[in-house]
Amino acid sequence: MSDDQDTQEQERQRTFSRNLRIARERAHLTQVDMAEAMTMSETVYARYESAKTWPSIGALLRLCQILNCSADWLLGLDDTPGPALSALPQEPLPVRRLRRQLRHAQPRTRRMVKLVLDELQERGRLAPPDDENRKKPRRLPPPDNDE
What we know:
By secondary structure, this protein is mostly helical. The chain has two domains: 3-87, Orthogonal Bundle (434 Repressor (Amino-terminal Domain)); 105-147, no CATH class. Helix content is 56%, strand content 0%. The protein is built from seven helices and no strands. It has helices at 3-26, 31-38, 42-49, 57-67, 71-74, 93-103, 107-122. Helix 2 (31-38) crosses helix 3. The longest helix has 24 residues, at 3-26. The protein is elongated, with a radius of gyration of 20 Å.
């Protein structure tokens, strides 16, 4: 590769990295959130944003799905990010933090939290998950009235 081609390649990678960071920030996501959504290490994702490596085609498509933007825009081939980046559905920050903490929790703790969330959902105090194929929540037994 000539010096001109190297420079062009570096500029394309910097454009991609900048656009990726912009899209992530507009979606109110952290690098940790993105790494989790992409099921990769935080280090690998950070390398995308620091222009140290390119994602695979599959990873690029997944980035576009998560960030609701076009590959052309991420790659700097189009000036329009795509359909409404600002209108992305967002989980509140405390929920994202809880998800991260639960990944490292004991299996018993995760089961207990799931039971509580299922019960809240069943009582209408929690919005249903997006996944329509989810199993029906188990019912918790009624509280004992031994008092």
